[in-house]
Amino acid sequence: MTLFRLDSSIRLEGSISRAVADTSEAAWRAEHPTGEVIRRDLGVAPLPSDAWATAAFAGWTPVDQQTAAQRDAVALSAQLGDELLAADSYLFGVPLYNWGISQHMKTWIDLVIADPRFGAGSETPLAGRSGLLVIARGGAYGEGTPKFGWDHSTAYLTRVIGEVWGLDLRIVEAELTLADIVPAMSDLKPLAAEFLATAHAAAATHGRTFGEQAAAMASV
Ligand SMILES: Cc1cc2nc3c(=O)[nH]c(=O)nc-3n(C[C@H](O)[C@H](O)[C@H](O)COP(=O)(O)O)c2cc1C
């Protein structure tokens, strides 16, 4: 059993998305003590932001005419594709930044899509596999809140990872994560704590479940 785990928080200390993903990974690990984890940490080691454009056009250039930079970008894109294809369960930790996804996350997605196995014409390359998307948001974005509709990240991620790549994707959301550090949000601390506890519990459940799903698929 192999778990692919991607983190994208730009902080290591106090990261909620990492902590909730840790909970899910621990639940998966309990089910699969000898399982392998493939890690990609975009917060610690961002991908070069110009690699996507280079890889995208390299596809139009005959291999023997490609520059060294094009070959490197294509190799990076293929490596990212390999990492995804080598797994049977998936865990993504993604904070909301500036009402959308970070440039780090977008570069990763664009480079994966530059791999022909994931790009236009490919058919849901991860179909039938299960994954969990852990979202961390400083504020609240639910219906009735002033910023309802301002999260431009979650729908995009679900579209690409769930629909285009075909993962059976579950979502766990931790909201109001800034309540502990922003004085103006201090009244919201109890609600934030409630959201966080719910997120950890759901992450543990999903970690166990997608482990079970992968095991069932492997035994077919
Ligand atoms: C540069 C930056 C931009 C952010 N933009 C938003 C935002 O647009 N909306 C929001 O609700 N929270 C925003 N936040 C707060 C993060 O979403 C929140 O702190 C989240 O918990 C970060 O994930 P982490 O805890 O895994 O690091 C931002 C944080 C940073 C550092």
TrEMBL record:
<dbReference type="InterPro" id="IPR029039">
    <property type="entry name" value="Flavoprotein-like_sf"/>
</dbReference>
<dbReference type="GO" id="GO:0016655">
    <property type="term" value="F:oxidoreductase activity, acting on NAD(P)H, quinone or similar compound as acceptor"/>
</dbReference>
<dbReference type="Pfam" id="PF02525">
    <property type="entry name" value="Flavodoxin_2"/>
</dbReference>
<dbReference type="InterPro" id="IPR023048">
    <property type="entry name" value="NADH:quinone_OxRdtase_FMN_depd"/>
</dbReference>
<dbReference type="InterPro" id="IPR003680">
    <property type="entry name" value="Flavodoxin_fold"/>
</dbReference>
<keyword id="KW-0288">FMN</keyword>
<protein>
    <recommendedName>
        <fullName>FMN-dependent NADH-azoreductase</fullName>
        <ecNumber>1.7.1.17</ecNumber>
    </recommendedName>
</protein>
<dbReference type="GO" id="GO:0010181">
    <property type="term" value="F:FMN binding"/>
</dbReference>
<dbReference type="InterPro" id="IPR050104">
    <property type="entry name" value="FMN-dep_NADH:Q_OxRdtase_AzoR1"/>
</dbReference>
<keyword id="KW-0520">NAD</keyword>
<keyword id="KW-0285">Flavoprotein</keyword>
<keyword id="KW-0560">Oxidoreductase</keyword>
<feature type="domain" description="Flavodoxin-like fold">
    <location>
        <begin position="1"/>
        <end position="167"/>
    </location>
</feature>
